[in-house]
UniProtKB/TrEMBL annotation:
Gene name for this UniProt entry: queG
Enzyme class: oxidoreductase
Residue positions binding cob(II)alamin: R59, D136, N157, L160, L171, S220, C245, D246
Cofactor(s), names only, from the UniProt record: [4Fe-4S] cluster; cob(II)alamin
Protein name: Epoxyqueuosine reductase
EC number(s) per entry: 1.17.99.6
InterPro entries: 4Fe4S_Fe-S-bd, 4Fe4S_Fe_S_CS, QueG, QueG_DUF1730
Protein species of origin: Stagnimonas aquatica
A GO MF label: metal ion binding
Length: 351
């Protein structure tokens, strides 16, 4: 068995062999992060995400998620896809913008499988150990843990940033009862400096201050987590973004260093990186279910997919094709879809 002080470097090497970009052992001091989260919750900035207020102790104390946990291994998996240029799609009002992370296979299963393989590889080296793998699948402060593992710093847009990879990556963790030495390097410096590009570019002005996001105005929250009608005052600003939003990443200077992923599972499916709003709005539920199988788009149901697309069509250049598509859904059984179609028709001057 290798000495424990050698294990962090070996874990990093094993992780990279499995396709991860980086790995580190996190310090488990998270009290300041809990205070930050509690203030955010107290101000109601979480919107309908009541789950964010549950299990705060488990978020801060890893042994609450897996009894006996002594160490957390934090891992980074890069995902920037070889996709149609994002800004070109945003600038084309006829096309649907889908967040780059959601164009290919849902990362959860892929990452979970690799985390389990890494846990087993560690077991081969040191013997049986109790562990649990997380892929955004439990109440964990994953960005704070990754920061504590020296994988980057938390930027003004509340995302983890890395000097070599920007923010185009997923995070995962292994909670283990092995007493692994935490990364001895100095914490990653905050390299945001005086830059405010991410704050300034937000279409709905969702950042109330650096490092503070009002989820109720965030397009990612609205198009994925929010149920019911979108606030009227935000609909025009949503533009053609139908699932998530990458604006604060697209302008981040550090993302110029992110390299496109070679991971085939993250490649765009069904031409979704260039698809037209009208085309997607025409999918019936059976088509929706078939074409989104195994994708993060399944965070939605068909009705919310249509609701989001109706907003995009309301903001699209006027055309007979757009009007016909909207009128075809005017009597949809879902009230939210009908209401957003009515709004879209009014925006098109055809209410």
């Amino acid at each position: 068995m290798p000495p424990f002080y050698e294990l962090p470097q070996r874990i990093k090497a094993w992780a990279q062999e499995l396709g991860f970009a980086d790995a580190g052992i996190a310090e488990l001091s998270l009290d300041a992060d809990r205070d930050h989260l509690q203030r955010w919750l107290d101000e109601g900035l979480h919107g309908q995400m009541a789950f964010m207020g549950r299990d705060l102790d488990k978020r801060v104390h890893p042994e609450g998620l897996r009894p006996g946990t002594l160490s957390v291994i934090s891992l980074r998996l890069d995902y920037r896809p070889q996709a149609e240029a994002a800004q070109a799609v945003l600038d084309d009002g006829e096309r649907a913008y889908i967040s780059r992370y959601a164009l290919g296979r849902d990362y959860h299963k892929l990452m979970r499988g690799r985390l389990l393989k890494l846990g087993a590889r560690l077991e081969q080296a040191v013997g049986p150990h109790g562990y649990r793998v997380l892929t955004d699948s439990a109440p964990a402060l994953e960005k704070a843990l990754a920061r504590n593992a020296r994988l980057g710093w938390i930027g003004k847009n509340t995302l983890l940033l890395n000097r070599k990879a920007g923010s185009w990556f997923f995070l995962g963790e292994i909670y283990t009862d092995l007493p692994l030495p935490a990364n001895a390097q100095a914490p990653s410096s905050n390299h945001c400096g005086s830059c405010s590009a991410c704050l300034d570019v937000c279409p709905t002005k969702a950042f109330v201050a650096p490092y503070r996001l009002d989820a109720r105005k965030c397009i990612s929250y609205l198009t994925i987590e929010h149920r019911g009608a979108f606030p009227l005052e935000l609909r025009a600003a949503i533009g053609n973004r139908v699932f998530g939003c990458d604006d604060c990443q697209l302008v981040c200077p550090w993302n110029r260093y992110a390299q496109p992923t070679a991971e085939a599972d993250f490649a765009p499916r069904h031409g979704l990186d260039t698809a037209k709003l009208v085309e997607l709005f025409g999918w019936d539920e059976a088509t929706w279910l078939r074409k989104t199988e195994g994708m993060a788009l399944r965070r939605l149901d068909h009705a919310r997919w249509l609701r989001n697309l109706a907003i995009g069509l309301g903001n699209a250049p006027r055309s007979n094709e757009v009007l016909s598509a909207l009128r075809a859904r005017a009597e949809h059984p879902d009230e939210a879809v009908r209401e957003h179609v009515r709004w879209a028709l009014e925006q098109q001057g055809a209410g």
